[in-house]
Amino acid sequence: MPTFDNRFLRDLPGDPDTTNQLRQVYGACWSRVMPTSVSAPKLLAYSSEMLQALGLSDEDINSPAWVNALGGNGLIPGMEPYAMCYGGHQFGNWAGQLGDGRAISLGEVVNSQGQRWELQLKGAGVTPYSRMADGRAVLRSSVREFLCSEAMHHLGIPTTRALSLVQTGDVVIRDMFYNGNPQAEKGAIVCRVSPSFIRFGNFEIFAMRQDKQTLKTLVDFTINRDFPELADFPEDERLAEWFAIVCVRTARLVAHWMRVGFVHGVMNTDNMSILGLTIDYGPYGWVDNFDPGWTPNTTDAAGRRYCFGRQPEIARWNLERLAQALYALKPEREIYDEGLMLFDQAYNKEWGAVLAAKFGFSQWRDEYEPLFTEVFDLMTQAEIDMTEFFRKLALVEATQPDLGILQSASYSDALWETFKPRFSDWLKQYSQATVADGRDPIARKDAMNRVNPRYVLRNYLAQQAIDLADAGDNSLIEELLEVLRHPYDEQLGKERFAALRPDWAKHKAGCSMLSCSS
Ligand SMILES: Nc1ncnc2c1ncn2[C@@H]1O[C@H](COP(=O)(O)OP(=O)(O)OP(=O)(O)O)[C@@H](O)[C@H]1O
Ligand SMILES: [Mg+2]
């Protein structure tokens, strides 16, 4: 049995009210709340890596006690469920108190290596923070969260993890596109796992309410528990150093997203992890044809605030909101300006390194910049699949460049023909630069294939897994989980999972359009 050590609950002020009623919660970081029980919890899938990290066996997780706990029907000794109080800026505006409206933390497991893993159910019923909603999650969004959490981890991208996917046996009513067509869908619960689920919004809420004391307590707690590297830092420099670390981690996170073509979709400050992890797999998506303006989130279709190309800028905007919240504790502008400058520097450095690596160069050189600008413009206009393009680019022999190799990344023969002359010029210049870089061709190809994934959770693949799961067949969830364990390796017989988005998926709900309704 895992050992629980529930520090968030123990060390931080809590809500004295233990009823499960909607309310504004003041001066407290959490409210106790029990998951609402479900009719028939059934374990659909789980991550063996997380199982191991938590010191659990296959037998444990399949036992009635664990299946019940992961479905919200019971507790394992040591679990003390609670919902967190947080606020957030949504689509650029302060939204007030939000909080875990359907997430319920069960407690913090400390494993045999001393690692701390908080377990949190998503979709486990209403909490004091549920506002107008039902506290539940549907199967489609839970499959997406479960698979993508683990896929991101295997891509080497900081993320919250997923232990399990449980079907509840109950239905959930959702109007998927908010167009007056509510449907009954299957309910599900993901058990997420993370060293910490603290978000920017956890700090913002206390700053906005001018509750400096709780803000200070939460900051000290976060630094103590989640940033042990700051333990020996002089007291009066800790806040500045901590903010700087958060800025740099956030910059690295977003550079990774841009590297693999991941679009978060709802980068509200309540969806920004203080640890720089990807959190909240809602209407996220993977770029198929390269397009900086693309967003999977239909709710954001008009403004495109959270589109692919704007993610770095939005991350910085969110850090500014965090700075604003921390200002109350240390009203010295310079420390926040310094942190934000470090964000810019870290992002530029990371992104430069990412670009050089994606294109197979041994290092960043300023002279490459026009090459990158030109090809991204071409990829956008000619509708070129991002993932396929970079895998095929690795096959181009710089001494004998063959444009034909890249054609498999094209979505449109007509556009390919139109842009062929420009692509051809580009490839010549790129090949010359590659030759000049002087890298060994095999080393170049291997290095490219370590940063350019072959397999990502393409939107249509996730949708196929969902459609099957909805019909009671979990085989594709299992198969995707397995393929996405080794996203950079060619896997014999698994080519279909690297295939470009088929035509049928171009405008299908769930494949190219997702809403926040989940
Ligand atoms: N079905 C629901 N019932 C209750 N609250 C909800 C529901 N869906 C979203 N919320 C709440 O609305 C706010 C914003 O929602 P958002 O879509 O960012 O989060 P989420 O998908 O529920 O979860 P998380 O950020 O924990 O992954 C959060 O406070 C969230 O808890
Ligand atoms: Mg959220």
Automatic annotation (TrEMBL):
EC class of the enzyme, as a word: transferase
Q: Does the keyword Nucleotide-binding apply?
A: yes
Give a Pfam family name: SelO
Which residues are listed for ATP binding in this entry? G99, G101, R102, K122, D134, G135, R192, R199, D280
UniProt catalytic activity: L-tyrosyl-[protein] + ATP = O-(5'-adenylyl)-L-tyrosyl-[protein] + diphosphate; L-tyrosyl-[protein] + UTP = O-(5'-uridylyl)-L-tyrosyl-[protein] + diphosphate; L-histidyl-[protein] + UTP = N(tele)-(5'-uridylyl)-L-histidyl-[protein] + diphosphate; L-threonyl-[protein] + ATP = 3-O-(5'-adenylyl)-L-threonyl-[protein] + diphosphate
Amino-acid positions noted as binding Mg(2+) in the UniProt annotation, renumbered to this chain: N271, D280
Q: Which PANTHER family would you find in this protein's record?
A: PROTEIN ADENYLYLTRANSFERASE SELO, MITOCHONDRIAL
Matching NCBIfam families: PRK00029.1
Report the function annotation for this chain. Nucleotidyltransferase involved in the post-translational modification of proteins. It can catalyze the addition of adenosine monophosphate (AMP) or uridine monophosphate (UMP) to a protein, resulting in modifications known as AMPylation and UMPylation.
Family the UniProt entry places it in: Belongs to the SELO family.
What protein name is recorded for this chain? Protein nucleotidyltransferase YdiU
State the organism named in the record.
Methylobacillus methanolivorans
Instruction: State the organism's lineage.
Output: Bacteria, Pseudomonadati, Pseudomonadota, Betaproteobacteria, Nitrosomonadales
Q: Which gene holds the coding sequence for this protein?
A: ydiU
